[in-house]
Every structure is written in structure tokens, then in C-alpha cells.
Design brief:
Blueprint: H1 2-25, H2 38-42, H3 58-62, H4 65-84, H5 90-93, H6 95-118, H7 121-137
Helix pairs in contact: 1-4, 4-6, 6-7
Length: 138
């Protein structure tokens, strides 16, 4: 189990470094031409927008790494359950359910990242789709 935690941490750290790099290299003008979300025009989501940055709302964007971490962790547990055929509990009997949950967490991470980075309508749709799928599986 410790290997799974370490691997999840390493993969998440790599993703963090990629996001930091993207935020440093790319500017906020990359989102020009995309339709702004109506909610982004009136709501600040606890963080003021900085349209000059690639991530318009950096802290809201980086906070999605938590979903990414747990998504990777859950997918690894699902893979371990599948390989070991560990049928000690109901969830281990159906590792694809764990895999689906992990993939939903990762999708939510990318969708919410896209939204808080761009504040666009398409980003909001991805963010809300990921949230809706996760909520329906709980």
C-alpha cells in the first residue's frame, strides 16, 4: 500500500510541475475566442480572477490536484484488487467500480482545472459534468 501512496504522490507532483510550467509559459490570451461562463462574469469563486495568467484563478486551479491525487490512488487500488483477486470485501469483488470512481475523480480534476484556468463556458460544462457524475455514484 505504501508503494501506491508514493506512486500517487510522485504522479501528482509531476502534474503540479506541468501545471506550474504551463502557467509560467502560457498567458491568459490563450483562452481568447472561447465563450466566457456567465457565472464567471458575476461570481469570483473565493478568488479574484487574473486574466493575464494562463490560470485565471491559480489557487482554485491548483486545488484540483487533490482530486487528481485521489483519482490516481483509487485507480491503483482498483488495479491491485484486479490483479490480486482479493475478494475480502464487496468493493474488491468489483474493481471496475473503483476504477470508474478513480477516473471520475481525475476527470473532475481536469474539468475543474479547465474551468478555473479559463473561466469559459466549455470549462464550466466539464467541471459540472465531473461533479455530477461523481455525485450520482455516491
Amino acid at each position: 500500500m505504501q508503494k501506491i501512496l508514493i506512486r500517487s504522490t510522485v504522479i501528482t507532483t509531476i502534474m503540479l510541475l506541468i501545471w506550474i510550467g504551463l502557467n509560467q509559459i502560457l498567458g491568459g490570451n490563450i483562452w481568447q475566442g472561447m465563450t466566457l461562463s456567465k457565472s464567471a462574469l458575476t461570481v469570483e469563486y473565493c478568488e479574484f480572477s487574473n486574466p493575464d495568467l494562463f490560470f485565471h484563478q491559480p489557487m482554485n486551479t491548483y486545488s484540483n490536484l487533490v482530486y487528481f491525487f485521489f483519482g490516481v490512488l483509487i485507480c491503483q487500488i482498483a488495479w491491485w484488487d484486479y490483479k490480486s483477486r482479493n475478494f475480502q470485501n464487496l468493493l474488491a469483488n468489483f474493481p471496475l467500480l473503483s476504477a470508474l470512481m478513480g477516473v471520475c475523480f481525475i476527470y473532475l480534476s481536469f474539468g475543474s482545472t479547465f474551468f478555473h484556468a479559463s473561466l469559459t463556458w466549455a470549462g464550466q460544462r466539464m467541471d459540472m459534468n465531473g461533479y455530477t457524475v461523481l455525485r450520482s455514484h455516491w
